[in-house]
Write a structure and sequence with these properties.
By secondary structure, the chain is of the alpha/beta class. The protein contains twelve helices and 15 strands. The protein has helices spanning about 5-20, 30-45, 70-75, 130-140, 165-180, 190-200, 210-220, 235-245, 275-280, 290-295, 300-310, 335-355, and strands at about 20-25, 50-55, 60-65, 80-85, 105, 110, 115-120, 145, 180-185, 200-205, 225-230, 255, 285-290, 315-320, 355-360. The chain has an eight-stranded parallel beta barrel with strand order 7-8-9-10-11-12-13-14, surrounded by seven helices. It has a four-stranded antiparallel beta sheet with strand order 2-3-1-4. Helix 4 links the parallel strand 7 (about 115-120) and strand 8. The longest helix is centred in the last third of the chain and has 17 residues, at about 335-355. It is elongated and about 65 Å long.
């Protein structure tokens, strides 16, 4: 059997990429009826159009098998400025598709617009007293989004699994009583529409990064989604996971680097700081960092936060518990209120040094 040289495989890969990916850039101020004509022509060819609204132009991404002869009919349309082939395997997340950085808006908070957004709170919602106390502490510090998981993926089936639906109702009550926005993890496809009714941001945890049915369901809701990187996922796999959410209609995706599994045992995971600037370079999506799950220990969290901001992160996802020593999960990596307050103060000059400011 004759083995083909590596360069031949690379040539085949490039050819396949070229015939399968295409975007259509429309001219500024294109009329709705002209946009519809482009959309209909795409559908006539058995392809799927996905629109992205930029500051000045609309970009239509063409999903499906694009052959060599397909760009020509669109190039001749008056409203079309440019037809481009995309070589990246990830289409909708790529900067080739959306040159401007995406900004995710939730309530009065914007993520990805040059500010550093801090999302903080307990690993798990444990009871009403703990959740309400956490919310009031964060509100006093100026933190606008509280994290608190109600569905907990635990290694041991005997550990605390979360409050479930009752926890969701509690988070909604927190929002109504304090005005703080809420964020929680969802593990099951069946819980996505329910959780979307109660909280402001949904999260896909590291263990579910490649739960493709869950990702598709996240694409159908009108709420921002934080997608965490899997503990053994490559950058390509991470970005491809975001494609599932984007292609199903939800453009409000936030990527979260939370550390990957390595041979090191001195801390919980190894934060891949390289991932932050690379994700910003490869995609238009906001990128945040979870220092708590990367560290697994509270003493090095402040240093990791500073490194993340310096690397270009748009925000932080930090665990804070009113009494970490009493936490039902992840107490060792949770800051207490005073530690979080001190951290927020220390982060301000770091933000200023990289030309950003904290949204607090």
């Amino acid at each position: 059997m004759k083995i083909l040289p590596i360069r031949i495989f690379r040539w085949i890969e490039i050819k396949l990429n070229k015939v399968r990916r295409m975007i259509i850039v429309l001219k500024p101020k294109t009329k709705k009826e002209d946009i519809q004509k482009v959309v209909e022509k795409i559908k006539e060819k058995g392809l799927k159009p996905v629109e992205f609204q930029g500051d000045e132009r609309i970009v239509i991404h063409v999903l499906g098998k694009v052959t060599d002869d397909m760009p020509a009919p669109f190039q001749s349309m008056e409203c079309v400025e440019q037809v481009m082939r995309i070589l990246k395997p990830y289409k909708l997340a790529s900067k080739e598709h959306h040159a401007q950085r995406s900004v995710v808006k939730v309530g009065d908070v914007t993520i990805g617009n040059g500010e550093i957004t801090v999302i903080a709170g307990p690993c798990s919602a444990e009871n009403e007293e703990q959740v309400m106390k956490s919310a009031r502490i964060l509100k006093e510090m100026g933190v606008k989004i509280m994290r608190a998981s109600v569905f907990k993926p635990r290694t041991s089936p005997y550990d605390f699994q979360g409050m479930g639906i009752e926890g969701l109702k509690l988070l909604k009550k927190v929002g109504e009583k304090t005005g703080i926005l809420t964020e929680t993890e969802v593990m099951d496809v069946r819980d996505v529409p329910i959780a979307a009714e109660y909280v402001d941001i949904l999260r896909v945890g590291a263990r579910n990064m490649q739960n493709f049915d869950l990702l598709k369901e996240m694409g159908k809701i009108d709420k921002p989604v934080i997608l965490k990187r899997g503990m053994a996922a490559t950058i390509k796999e991470f970005i491809m996971a975001s494609e599932y959410i984007l292609m199903n209609g939800n453009k409000n995706v936030i990527l979260c680097e939370r550390g990957i599994r390595t041979f090191e045992t001195a801390y919980r995971n190894t934060l891949d700081i390289n991932a932050v600037p690379l994700l910003k370079q490869e995609t238009h999506l906001p990128v945040i960092v979870d220092p708590s799950h990367a560290a697994g220990r509270r003493d090095i969290i402040p240093a990791i936060c500073k490194a993340a901001i310096s690397a270009g992160a748009d925000g932080l996802l930090v665990e804070m518990h009113p009494k970490p020593e009493e936490a039902l999960s992840d107490g060792a990596q949770s800051l207490n209120p005073e530690e979080l307050k001190k951290l927020l103060k220390e982060l301000k000059p770091v933000c200023e040094a990289v030309g950003k400011r904290m949204s607090i």
